Amino acid sequence: MVTVRSTPAGGPSPGLRERKKIRTRESIRSAAFALVGRQGYDATTIEQIAERAEVSPSTVLRYFPAKEDIVLSDGQGAPLADAFRARPAGEPWPESLRHVVREAVTRETRARPEITRLRCRLMAEVPTVRSRMLEAMAGAGHTLAAAVGERSGRDPESLEVRVFAMSLVGGLAEAAQYWAGTGFRDDPADLADRALAVHHRGLGAENP
Q1: CA spacing 20 to 30 A to 27: which of 51, 69, 96, 140?
Q2: What number of other Cβ atoms are within 10 A of residue 200's Cβ?
Q3: pTM of the predicted model as reported, rounded to 2 decimal places
């Protein structure tokens, strides 16, 4: 739910070589999700993924250094930060942040619902996937801190902004795992809103 990707509007179109790389990455990911969905994460090997994607195991590892990387989204923080920067300058920045988070979660869960659910379930149930996700969160938090610093006029390297960004990324990751752990019964965008509310106000009586 929180590991979403998007392409900023108006960005340059990728060239032929880059499009081939994108297709290869997506082919590997599609193969991995198909196998994991059928036989489970632990039973799925790099060799099986390579065979299904019709590439070599070395190609899989060139694109994804670890199996965990295949099932996690690329660049967790950059698309969110780009969308945040693109919001109207006169809009209060906390509202901009809420808007882009909800929009990103809604877009991802509607575009690829089965993959999004499987990814969140793996994050919740597979320790190695969760560990890899926590490593990636550091980069996402740093990227988001830079954008928050720009919009809020604060030093992005200050302790306050860094804590704000990392706790936000962590809260959204926890919301994704909660969604999976409760059987996907809630609207994920609403869960993201709840996570942001707790992040903004703390555990007051107004929060569920």
Answers
A1: 140
A2: 14
A3: 0.81
